[in-house]
Amino acid sequence: MSISKTGILLVNLGTPDAPTPWGVIKFLRAFLSDKRVVEYPRWLWLFILYGIVLPLRAIKIAKHYQKIWTNQGSPLRTLTTQLSKRLALYLSQQKGYDVPVVCAMTYGTPSLKEGLSSIKAMNVSRLIVLPLFPYYSATTTAAVMDALARQLAKERSIPSLFFIHEYGLEEHYLAALAKSIECYWQAHGLPERLLFSFHGLPERSLSLGDPYAFRCVTAVERLAKKLNIAENFFSIGFQSRFGFRAWLAPSTNEQLVNWAQEGIQSVDIVSPSFAVECLETLEELEAQSRSLFLKAGGKNFRYIPAMNDSEDHVRAIGRLFDNFF
User: pTM here?
Assistant: First the structure.
């Protein structure tokens, strides 16, 4: 198979097109209507979504987006685009692979339809799809597969398809993540505690067989070994809780408050489940969790940035494609 006929599609979750209530409503309507994302009985959830969530939360969430919005737009979209461009450059210059790399979103723009259209225009006959979710979950990775299948079902001619299931436990990714933490400490010094914060899921997802929580715990165990840190130095937390059902524990914010009340003065937090910065890192962790920790008695809260389009992250992502060429 000619390498020039291979294309790569990077898929992230998505973002509103504008930090406005209407922009948020359009995004959340698509995102929260996905049966993979919310598994409440359909009639009940649609009533809650359209009767409560969208009308009551859109203005508040829009204000959160306004805090992180840049001149280039949404950080998630901007950084995902930059990551795809740098990946294409890395594959070309370092590996000798002339491979087009296109980014798309499960919800919002650029859509999967637009991404596949761009790939199709490049006349590729082999497509590698990488969801930018390091740790597999039915709510994220499987949702990409569902949306991809719906789009390909409309096509007469489809390429050979390769789907990268997850990569968060790959040695190159863990090494890059550990290095980013070590470099941060070299520049800013050690904290008293380190919290690994992952996006949460309802506990019911775990009982139904979703492997996400196990993958997160395994990643933390391996990262701790790479960083050579003691068990009492770090912990794991799950953020972004929503709704009334029980979610994965411990909660990121509860852990931060507990540490502050125990007299821990300085905390670093890192979120291995996010490839690039987004609302959950820049606003939820950097702003809300910081405020909570300081109000509970903590003194120094530091968010260790996502790897974004850094050289080490690009190289780690690039190594995922070694077996395809």
Answer: 0.95
